[in-house]
Write a structure and sequence with these properties.
- It is a single chain.
- By secondary structure, the protein is mainly alpha-helical.
- Helices cover 51% and strands 6% of the residues.
- The chain is rod-shaped.
- The protein is built from three helices and two strands.
- The chain has a two-stranded antiparallel sheet with strand order 1-2.
- The protein has one domain.
């Protein structure tokens, strides 16, 4: 008689523990959504940081090319394309935030007091983007 009671209890326990409860599924889904949200946020920040790194590198390379041009020719380049035609740059880089090569903000050099009729050239270059960086500074101030 005791064996009959044990046999009837076991199938009920097996049926109850063979699946997940709604609460367990909701907890797992909540964890998945939380982890996905954190992952998307980190992905968004990493793409912005990568574009910022590209912008810093492009600005460094263009400023270095302008300095080399000035050291070689004792004059600043009249356009960014002059850096390309004189082989100081392979191509004018694309601004990673405006996705264009013609949006760079150019700072022209001061006229030479000894020769006021001489042409001015590009002294510095900055991004044409009006957006703010992750650190709060404007890309056009870099």
């Amino acid at each position: 008689m005791v064996e009959a009671q044990v046999a009837s209890v076991q199938p009920a326990r097996v049926a109850r523990t063979s699946g997940f409860t709604l609460l367990e599924l909701m907890i797992v889904m909540g964890l998945i959504v939380t982890l996905a949200g954190v992952g998307l946020t980190m992905y968004g920040n990493s793409t912005i940081r990568a574009r910022e790194a590209v912008l810093k590198e492009d600005l460094f390379r263009m400023r270095d090319a302008i300095d080399q041009y000035h050291a070689d020719k004792n004059a600043y380049p009249p356009t960014l394309d002059a850096l390309v035609t004189d082989k100081y740059l392979r191509a004018v880089p694309t601004d990673p935030f405006t996705n264009a090569t013609d949006t760079w903000q150019l700072t022209m050099s001061e006229p030479d007091p000894a020769n006021p009729s001489a042409d001015t050239g590009i002294f510095d270059v900055k991004s044409g983007s009006d957006r703010l960086a992750i650190d709060g500074t404007s890309y056009s101030d870099w």
